[in-house]
Amino acid sequence: MSMTVTPITPVFGARIAGVDITGPLDDAAFADIRAAFDEHLVLVFSDQPMTDEQQIEFSERFGPLEGTRGVNPGSGTPFARQSNLDIKSGAVIPPDDRRMFYQKANMLWHADSSFKAIPSLCSVLTARIVPPEGGATELASSRAAYESLTTKEKADIEDLEIEYDISYSRGLVGFEFTPEERSFTPPVRHRLVRTNKNNGRKSVMIGVHAKGVVGWPEDEGRALLDDLLARATRPENTYRHEWRQDDVIVWDNQAAVHRATEYDTVKHHRLMQRTTISSGAPVNPI
Predict the structure, then answer these.
(1) Integer distance in angstroms from the first to the last C-alpha of the chain?
(2) How buried is 173 (Cβ within 10 angstroms: 0-12 exposed, 13-18 middle, 19+ buried)?
(3) What pLDDT, in 10s, does the model give residues 131-162?
(4) Is the pTM of this model over 0.85?
(5) CA atoms in the 13 A half-sphere facing the CB of 109
(6) Count of other CB atoms within 10 angstroms of residue 10
(7) Do the Cβ atoms of 249 and 44 come closer than 8 Å?
(8) Considering only CA atoms, which of 226, 49, 237 is closest in space to residue 126?
(9) Measured between alpha carbons, how far is 226 from 204 in angstroms, rounded to an integer?
(10) Is residue 245 a contact partner of residue 127, using CB atoms and an 8 Å limit?
(11) What are the φ and ψ backbone dihedral angles of 116, each rounded to 5 degrees?
(12) Mean pLDDT (whole number) for 81-100
């Protein structure tokens, strides 16, 4: 059966069927997946049970993987774990554990790794254990936010740089890094406007890690970033994914934002394994 691409919304997102991403992909099959990714920003695959090794192999087709360090429960592995389960024992992590507190900020709109010196291209998230209720993921198009601007507004923001800072974003939920943890991810600066090299379409890299506009007063920069996020998260530009076991989602971190939603972390188990693929792009590609 050949691969099919079915749009999820009129704005972004597509369901992909007719291809097995758990095994080796030939170049033609991956080219079709990559073309769908560039066009739709978010790809949803169903019934794709993945081992860690299979997820790594599929993810590396998009580019080099980031490692995970710091407070995330998957620290020291290629994976960022969105889970209430201890990586070593499998036991439920108590709600007051620092690892769970760290994950609270995932419920704010964000783009993975925009706070790193080299921002990520995309993320691959696999559903290993899904709670019977709650735990959906919401996604929104920051390409749609850019395309909603007037010609003058696009010109006004074209050359802006943004400071991204995970200490700032985690601080919004009251989480504080230790000095050592802070040293792993100091604030960085990136261009706000991103251009997809394969199709030339533009987006804005926004979300909670975007702290302010370089060279602008704080209130003016915050107003711009809040406006862009509000445009991206209009109902017509969003998609809510209710997870099923063995779902896989790939999303563009430079043209989309996402957020987690609540579930009962005491009553239910949840394990999502995320690989994050580096863009390989320089810090300020002018």
Answers:
(1) 43
(2) middle
(3) 999 999 999 999 999 999 999 999 999 999 99
(4) yes
(5) 25
(6) 8
(7) yes
(8) 49
(9) 12
(10) yes
(11) -95, 160
(12) 90
The answer to whether residues 253 and 99 touch, using CB atoms and an 8 Å cutoff, is no
Q: Are 253 and 114 in contact (CB under 8 A)?
A: yes
- Rounded to whole angstroms, the Cα distance separating 119 from 269 reads 31
* Main-chain dihedrals φ then ψ at residue 202, nearest 5 degrees: -105, 155
Which residue in the block uniquely carries the two structure tokens 């109902």?
235
Closest to 121 (Cα-Cα) out of 254, 282, 275, 274? 254
**Encoded tokens for 159:** 């050359």
Rounded-to-integer distance, Cα 216 and Cα 283, Å: 20
pLDDT at residue 184 is higher than 90: no
- Residue 17 phi, psi dihedral angles, 5° rounding: -135, 165
Non-local (6+) Cβ contacts of 116 within 8 A are 66, 185, 188
Where do the domains of the chain lie, and which CATH numbers do they carry? Answer: 4-278 (3.60.130.10)
| SS3 (DSSP) at 226 | helix
Q: Please state, in angstroms and rounded to a whole number, the distance separating the CA atoms of residues 194 and 265.
A: 36
Quick one: tokens of 202?
Answer: 């533009």
Beta bridge partners of 124: 250, 275
Residue 224 CB neighbour total at 10 angstroms: 22
Q: With contact defined as beta carbons under 8 Å apart, do 105 and 170 qualify? A: yes
- In this structure, the number of other CB atoms found within 10 A of the CB of residue 28 comes to 8
Residues contacting residue 166 through CB under 8 Å, at least 6 positions apart = 115, 177, 185, 209
Contact status, residue 41 vs residue 141, Cβ threshold 8 Å: yes
